[in-house]
Amino acid sequence: EIVLTQSPGTLSLSPGERNTLSCRASQSISNNQLAWYQQKAGQAPRLLIYGASSRATGIPDRFSGSGSGTDFTLTISRLEPEDFAVYYCQQYGSSPWTFGQGTKVEIK
Amino acid sequence: QVQLQESGPGLVKPSETLSLTCSVSGYFISSAYYWGWIRQPPGEGLEWIGSIYRSGSANYNPSLKSRVTMSVDTSKNQFSLNLSSVTAADTAVYYCARKVHGFDIWGQGTMVTVSS
Q1: Is B32's pLDDT higher than 80?
Q2: B70 and B47 in contact (C-beta within 8 Å)?
Q3: How far apart are CA A70 and CA A56, in angstroms?
Q4: Contact across the interface for B103 and A56, Cβ inside 8 Å
Q5: What share of chain B in percent tops pLDDT 90?
Q6: Is A82 exposed, middle or buried (0-12, 13-18, 19+ CB in 10 A)?
Q7: Which chain B residues touch A1 with a CB distance below 8 Å?
């Protein structure tokens, strides 16, 4: 099983700031099959990025993903008020598909 | 647009079987893609339970495999989850989702509590 470790656990930031979240895998992820999700309280997760760097339909271009192998990042170029949420990475290259434990982005 | 909706009992007794159905609208599940179940215990992260293809071929999380069964009913455009011998540790919000590249469409989730 591939274990995904996200860091940091919590980020305290102000609107307008740039934000980089990390997701590290315990082994290489096949074909960079790595996704990022945003989840707000009481809501289902929303797909942001798939294939490590492709934005999902309707996702603003301030969200970008990068990385390969075992190290991946999600960058939010300028935080908007609606971006304060929990972010999860997920690998779907090897079964069982696994999620990271999440990074909470909170308002400073 | 594509929409998914979970349905099933909100309360299940310990040792019994949790049964949920996901109804899909705006897309025929027989067309393509995988369909999956993910759960989230209160205040915790996400756990993939398993996924099923239109053919009925399924892939389960090994941690739950002995207790999980998934099925597809193309005539009703639904897919289902059965989780047997539940305990309090199975209390969670259960989501169904469509998997294309990652899970791109999610249901709103349904809270299932295991308690006597």
Answers
A1: no
A2: no
A3: 21
A4: no
A5: 91
A6: exposed
A7: 62
